[in-house]
Amino acid sequence: MNYSSHNIKGPFRSRHGMFLGVVAGLSEYFGISKWILRGIVIAISLFLAFWPVIIVYLISALIMPLDPYYIRRN
Prior knowledge:
74 residues, mainly alpha, 3 helices, 50% helix
């Protein structure tokens, strides 16, 4: 199966994320593990500030485009 997507410049929200797909989309964009990036976000929110991280996360979810549907090519 060959799949193709629209060309997206910049990060996008993943359709396969746990909560709004922000971390999953960023991990796909930067090519790192979702679990490593989730751990970093959780560590930042625990050690620095919980509410600012949540607010930035929600704003990112509103700003970032959703991952486009994949079109199957034969």
